[in-house]
Specification:
By secondary structure, this protein is an alpha/beta fold. It starts with a strand and ends with a helix. It has helices at residues 10-22, 33-42, 59-69, 83-91, 104-114, 149-160, 168-176, 185-198, 215-219; strands at residues 2-6, 26-30, 47-51, 74-78, 96-99, 123-126, 129-132, 137-140, 143-145, 203-206, 210-213. It is elongated and about 55 Å long. It holds the Pfam family Trans_reg_C.
């Protein structure tokens, strides 16, 4: 499980990170909302542990951003204990809500309970299309379709984040890293090849912005 822990208190982030890493998970830490958004946009996360009281922005705003663009469970942390605060948190899209102080093991258990709700399923189904993550195979109408590694990674990236539009630069950064010099038009060629192979409108072009999964196809 890849977990982002967002809290302005270094002691809290370090203790939580220690518990998750001992459990075999990989952790990212952010002490501000801005740095949290950067991590969220740069990598594919399985879980977000989010404090509501951050120095630069409200945790509720970050939660809303996540839910508008990704399918990632969010556990909110807060010192606010009123029922109105809890209801407000859930209305913002939180999947769970924990009041401080808490034991780190409680957060770990809650995160593992939510993980099956994550978009990180081993088989992703989009209409007649099946993406098998472990085997790195793509089936359409139960027929295996041959994909290059880059084509598979692009399709998987879009499928795991069906609400988000990815620009060419976004896709290049996620596939190759930040410090690369690659012609962004190579992404267009990969998308063209994917479309030929899956024979359907599974990938939508959002004019001036980039590419995303066609949610109308996803719902069929």
């Amino acid at each position: 499980m890849r977990v982002l822990i967002v809290d302005d208190e270094e002691k809290i982030t370090n203790v939580l990170a220690s518990y998750f890493e001992k459990n075999g998970d990989h952790t990212y830490i952010a002490h501000t909302g801005e740095s949290a958004i950067q991590i969220i946009d740069q990598g594919l996360l399985d879980m977000i542990i989010l404090d509501l009281m951050l120095p630069d922005m409200a945790g509720e705003d970050i939660c809303q951003y996540v839910k508008a663009n990704y399918d990632i469970p969010v556990i909110m942390l807060t010192a606010k204990i009123s029922i109105d605060d809890k209801v407000r948190g859930f209305k913002m899209g939180a999947d769970d809500y924990v009041v401080k102080p808490f034991h780190p093991k409680e957060i770990l258990v809650r995160a593992e309970r939510l993980l099956p709700m994550s978009h990180k399923k081993q088989v992703i189904t989009i209409g007649r299309l099946e993406i098998h993550k472990d085997e790195r195979t793509v089936l359409i109408n139960q027929q295996n379709i041959q994909f290059t590694p880059h084509e598979f990674n692009i399709l998987l990236l879009l499928a795991e984040n069906p609400k988000k539009v990815f620009s060419r630069d976004d896709i290049i950064q996620k596939l190759f890293g930040l410090d690369v010099d690659i012609n962004p038009r190579i992404v267009d060629q990969h998308i063209k090849n994917i479309r030929k192979k899956v024979d359907g409108d599974y990938i939508q072009t959002v004019f001036g912005l980039g590419y995303k999964i066609n949610e109308k196809v996803k719902e069929q």
